[in-house]
Amino acid sequence: MSNVEEKNFRDLKERLLSAGYSSSDIDFITRAWEFAKTAHFGQKRLSGDDYVIHSLEVARILFGWRVDAVSIAAGLLHDTIEDGAATYEDIERDFGSNVAVLVDGVSKVSKIRLRGSSEEVFVENLRKMFVTMAKDIRVVLVKLADRLHNMRTLRHLPSEKQTRIAKETLEIYAPLAERLGIGEVKAELSDLAFIYLFPEEYEKVKSLSEDYYRKAESTISKMKRNLLVELSREGINAKIEGRKKSLYSLWRKLERPDIDWNFEKIYDIVALRVLVDSVKDCYATLGIVHRNYKTVPNLSISDFIAQPKPNGYQSIHTKVFGPDGRIVEVQIRTFEMHELAERGIAAHWKYSEVKEKKGIEDEKLGKMGAVVDDKLAWVRQLASWQDEIKDGKEFMQAVKLDVLNQRIFVFSPRGDVFDLPVGSTPIDFAYAVHTHLGRYVKGAKVGGRIVPLSYQLQNGDIVEIIKNKNPQKPNSDWLDFVRTTSARRQIKKDLGIVREIPK
Ligand code: MN
């Protein structure tokens, strides 16, 4: 046991203390540290490091997200059953069933293999993962921290393993982080995977973008100075930062046919982010931005404060001409919205902790609870599907298409927002609104115009379903173009292709 990790653990303890974790929390975490050292005694990572360095780094990442003490302890212990000398019973006895369930859940999720094992085993494990997640979402947080550290140290592994792990990261874990609203983790995971999976493209994007990043950053710093002066004149307390687009998402955008590697068409390569105290200040700031910089015609404002995205994201986005004539995206949000956007579901535990300690008013927490509930809804849906969808392939399709793929956001005429996979049609929309609405579909309008039922919905579309007076059997042709599993299953049920399985 070297002194480096002891020093690093002491450092973590000091940080826990200054972040306001109680002394009993810190004792609990210290016991987990001692336990992990014993369980991993003599074990090394491929990097040559003592194994517990990994456990400690995972705990430090979790602390960075300010999760509760149980999650941090579970981070220290996460490999003690799978790779160390401990048993479930040991952990349950010493740390309680909460921690044991988390460690066990992480071990189960760790068995997931995309390559190198049969599809069936993979699907089975993925099902277990969603069931485990539905029980305690903290499993995913520990697993994401584990994956993040493994990706940061991936260079030590043989190249086939690098490819398998990077692919799994890009296909499963980065989208999971996104769905849980943990933006910063999603960006880091996909950028790390990008390096290993598409090394040439990575180098190309990196070298071609350097110049644009530099120019954009100089524009941003000019605007920042100017806006801080203007805002303080109006008595608005603000923090302004530049946000660089991650290389992976930049690459995805460059590859789009409408962009076709034209950097001039990418307006958010660096965005200006203004953080203020209140919603009222957000709108006042929007006014100040528009007074100082000309807005870009046809690139309208997106107000995700009035109309949050289904994953809970709130912010106002606008595009203006910056001082050098360059188009700049400005994102305006409160500090609290920012916290939720960056840390997502992880922020929930921080706030729960704070609430216990400082007695924050329930109303504030209620909102937060609703956001967390939204984020969990799809996990629960998947967990319940696993009883219903017996065919592994179908389940896999459901996971890949509905959950992990890119999403679009469309609106009902009343302004309710629906979150659907890319390629969804008005039929998918109808079934998303209500399983029974599908039975009344006669036609559909998008933005007031009649569209075919196979029309592929676009982000921001307002979709209206034209209804029949009475319910009808769905048209079997719909099965050729519906995108969501829920629509497909309901159509099949209504057509009598599958029997309804009682719950
Ligand atoms: Mn691990």
Proportion of residues in helical segments: 55-70%
> What is the name of the CATH superfamily of the largest domain?
Hypothetical protein af1432
State the assembly state of the protein chains: single chain
Strand order of the largest sheet: 1-2-5-4-3
Shape: globular
Describe how the helices and strands are arranged.
Elements (H helix, E strand, L loop, with lengths): L2 H16 L4 H17 L11 H14 L4 H9 L10 H8 L1 H14 L8 H17 L2 H15 L6 H21 L3 H15 L1 H35 L4 E7 L2 H8 L15 E7 L2 H14 L9 E2 L12 E6 L5 E8 H9 L1 H14 L3 H27 L3 H13 L2 E5 L5 E5 L4 H8 L7 E6 L2 E3 L11 E5 L17 H10 L9
Parallel strand pairs: 2-5
Antiparallel strand pairs: 1-2, 3-4, 4-5, 6-7, 8-9, 8-10
Helix pairs in contact: 1-2, 1-3, 2-4, 3-4, 3-8, 4-6, 4-8, 5-6, 6-8, 7-16, 7-17, 8-10, 9-10, 10-11, 11-12, 15-16, 16-17, 18-19
The chain binds manganese (II) ion (MN).
Manganese (II) ion binds next to loops.
What are the salient characteristics of this protein?
five-stranded mixed beta sheet, 19 helices, 503 residues, 56% helix, 3 domains, Beta Polymerase, domain 2, globular, binds manganese (II) ion, single chain, three-stranded antiparallel beta sheet, Ubiquitin-like (UB roll), alpha+beta, Hypothetical protein af1432
Structure, described:
With 503 residues, this protein is an alpha+beta fold. The protein has 3 domains: 3-197, Hypothetical protein af1432 (Orthogonal Bundle); 199-358, Beta Polymerase, domain 2, CATH 3.30.460.10; 406-495, Beta-grasp domain (Ubiquitin-like (UB roll), Roll). It contains 19 helices and 10 strands. A 5-stranded mixed beta sheet has the order 1-2-5-4-3. The chain has a 3-stranded antiparallel beta sheet with strand order 9-8-10, with helices on one face. α2 (23-39) runs parallel beside α4, α4 crosses α8 and α7 (119-135) crosses α17. The termini are far apart. Bound molecules: manganese (II) ion. Manganese (II) ion is lined by residues 54, 78-79, 146.
